[in-house]
Design a protein that fits this description.
The chain is α/β, with parallel strands linked by helices and about 325 residues long. The protein contains 8 helices and 15 strands. A 7-stranded parallel beta sheet has the order 5-9-4-1-2-3-10, with helices on both faces. Helix 5 links the parallel strand 11 and strand 12. The longest helix has 15 residues. The protein binds flavin-adenine dinucleotide. The site of flavin-adenine dinucleotide has 27 residues, from helix 6, helix 7 and helix 8.
Length: about 325
């Protein structure tokens, strides 16, 4: 049997690096790995996908109902392809989390989410309790549905492959009484690196006090080519939108450098960034828990420290 990986794209035609990591995970399970590419039009994406290293076949599904990765359509398509695969994988991002549970419902199997390690073909490691513990789970299902945490697997190379293309289509038109329909898409525009792929992230918490004060972080982010993140309290306070949120119910990140500014370091926040290579915390409370999770800590008021940090960086860059 083989493994099937659902590809996930950023806006435009950039394949998310979590897709590349998911292929790595699939290759640990099976030698023969196919990828599923869905969309309204595929052209450029298809040209890229056939070169993915280690991929045997690109299943290409072109249909208007795939324009926005609508979960019902994609899950239905995947269910129709499932008989050829023992393993079906997707990145543990919003798309994977939306589609895999539906697919599991259609196939009547138990999905295993947020896999961080593959022990053998039926045994997997995944975090539980906001990442405080790691559970090793053994699946007895004949078909295994896994969502993969990108940061836990090294991405495969995007060159070197020579996959064949197989066109696939939805087995039958979807019923008209679908429970959800696509209405519109509102995108936040940013020239900064994508949060989940950024090498440097500077995140602000409730202590930023306002949305305007996030410009202090933006100035530093511009100097470091960093992405901006936020704690849930900062998001809930309306300082930034929720696509900035890092943590258990936000994005999982593992940059080279994570700068945590005026956030306390709650367990649920740490769950999203504790795999960062170097953590620097700035907080006025010397007892803030974030310092225990940091390599470097600066105790002080951000309104004094951030402008000094910006000046220091300007002089060095
Ligand atoms: P606070 O805890 O209020 O910390 C603010 C910090 O700023 C304090 O340490 C303070 O000393 C410091 N500060 C204030 N002013 C200054 C200043 N001028 N200079 C320097 N320092 C200053 N949280 C997440 O972040 N991500 C998640 O995904 C997430 N998921 C959750 C899921 C569940 C089910 C639950 C229950 C909670 C979740 N939370 C999550 C919320 C989490 O528990 C915390 O409430 C939240 O992370 C706190 O955000 P904060 O650190 O910004 O705020």
């Amino acid at each position: 049997m083989a493994a099937l990986v659902l590809l996930s794209y950023e806006q435009g035609n950039t394949l998310r690096s979590t897709s590349l990591s998911t292929i790595t995970a699939a290759l640990q399970l099976e030698k023969e790995v196919d990828v599923l590419l869905v969309g309204e039009t595929l052209n450029e994406r298809l040209d890229q996908a056939i070169h993915l290293n280690g991929v045997r076949r690109v299943l290409a599904a072109k249909d208007p109902s795939f324009a926005h990765m609508q979960a019902e359509s994609v899950a239905n398509l995947m269910a129709s392809l499932a008989s050829d695969y023992e393993f079906i994988l997707a990145p543990a991002n919003a798309e994977g989390k939306n589609i895999l549970p539906r697919l599991a419902g259609l196939l009547d199997v138990q999905p295993i989410s947020e896999v961080t390690k593959i022990i053998d073909k039926s045994t997997f490691v995944r975090p539980i309790y906001a990442g405080s513990l790691l559970a090793t789970v053994c699946s007895k299902d004949k078909k295994k549905l896994l969502s993969i945490r990108g940061i836990a697997f090294t991405p495969i190379k995007t060159i070197g492959g020579n996959a064949e293309i197989k066109e696939v289509t939805l087995p039958s038109p979807l019923p008209e009484n679908q429970k959800s329909i696509f209405l519109n898409l509102k995108l936040s525009q940013s020239n900064r690196p994508e949060l989940e792929a950024a090498k440097i992230i500077i995140s602000g918490g409730r202590g930023m006090q306002s949305s305007d004060n996030f410009t202090l972080l933006e100035k530093i982010a511009d100097l470091l080519n960093a992405a901006i993140g936020a704690s849930r309290a900062a998001v809930d306070s309306g300082f930034v939108s929720n696509d900035f949120q890092v943590g258990q119910t936000g994005k999982i990140v593992a940059p080279e450098l994570y700068i945590a500014v005026a956030l306390s370091g709650a367990t649920q926040h740490l769950a999203g960034m504790k795999d960062s290579k170097i953590v620097v915390a700035i907080n006025k409370d010397p007892d803030a828990p974030i310092f225990k999770a940091s390599d470097y800590g600066i105790v002080g008021d951000i309104f004094e420290i951030l402008p000094r940090l910006e000046e220091g960086l300007k002089n060095r860059i």
